[in-house]
Design the sequence.
């Protein structure tokens, strides 16, 4: 895997052959467990190989994102410069048709969202169900031919989002229709254009978090803060450090949320619970 990954970084053939010879010759001393290489270091080395290989496989998403960004209009371009948008689209299609005929349809949808979490790869797009099926098999074939990464298509699932919020990785995902009215002036005539745009939102699930805090004895089922009995015997500095770490972790995890207003209620519960725990 290391040689295969570095093959895309280094163009010197002799250096690659030397690296391959080194790894094959000293495979037992580098990869297997020996006295000179501890088990912890061996896991770190294998994790480095895995992340390096996955990083190369994920480079296709950077390429698609950079190319599709050329289709985006500037400020107010979606409403007032629609003609220029289609001109850019036609120019892009004309330039890249010769080289990217197979994947040209991917560039027409610039809203691609990708995340990797605990060994699972998640790709979100606003495209149709047929488009996602094509994208699925294109990525599988691309990774197999380019990076020798063999995936099983039946393990890749396609789910269509609904109008109801979906609980996903501690977030509430929803698609909301955002309506905007733009006034256009042409000579003596004025026009009002009503445009509806679907906006992808990631919300903080306030009720599940309150239930989790209630189970951990930070508040009651109604969300009223109470003291933490299990931490009452700790020192004041230790109690403050524990509550502070929880607040920082929550703020860091939900920093990408589109609406953070409900997160302040969770922080309020933790801070008041900390004060009541210190007062015991």
Sequence:
């Amino acid at each position: 895997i290391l040689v295969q990954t570095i093959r895309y970084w280094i163009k010197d053939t002799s250096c690659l052959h030397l690296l391959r010879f080194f790894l094959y010759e000293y495979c037992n001393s580098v990869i297997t467990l020996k006295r000179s290489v501890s088990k912890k270091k061996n896991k770190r080395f294998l994790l480095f190989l895995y992340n390096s290989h996955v990083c190369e496989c994920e480079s296709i998403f950077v390429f698609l994102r950079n190319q599709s960004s050329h289709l985006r209009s500037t400020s107010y371009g979606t409403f007032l410069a629609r003609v220029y948008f289609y001109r850019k689209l036609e120019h892009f299609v004309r330039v890249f048709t010769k080289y990217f005929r197979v994947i040209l349809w991917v560039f027409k949808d610039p809203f691609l969202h990708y995340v990797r979490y605990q060994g699972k790869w998640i790709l979100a797009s606003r495209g149709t169900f047929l488009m996602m099926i094509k994208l699925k098999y294109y990525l599988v074939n691309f990774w197999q031919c380019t990076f020798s990464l063999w995936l099983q298509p039946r393990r890749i699932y396609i789910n269509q989002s609904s109008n109801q919020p979906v609980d996903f990785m501690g977030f509430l995902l929803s698609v909301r229709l955002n309506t905007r009215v733009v006034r256009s002036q042409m000579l003596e005539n004025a026009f009002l254009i009503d445009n509806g745009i679907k906006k992808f939102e990631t919300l903080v699930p306030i009720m599940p978090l309150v239930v989790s805090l209630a189970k951990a004895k930070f508040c009651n089922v109604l969300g009223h803060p109470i003291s933490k009995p299990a931490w009452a015997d700790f020192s004041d500095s230790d109690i403050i450090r524990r509550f502070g770490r929880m607040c920082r972790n929550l703020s860091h995890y939900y920093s990408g949320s589109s609406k953070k207003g409900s997160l302040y209620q969770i922080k309020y519960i933790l801070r008041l619970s900390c004060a009541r725990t210190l007062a015991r």
In short: The radius of gyration is 26 Å. Residues 166-203 form one domain.
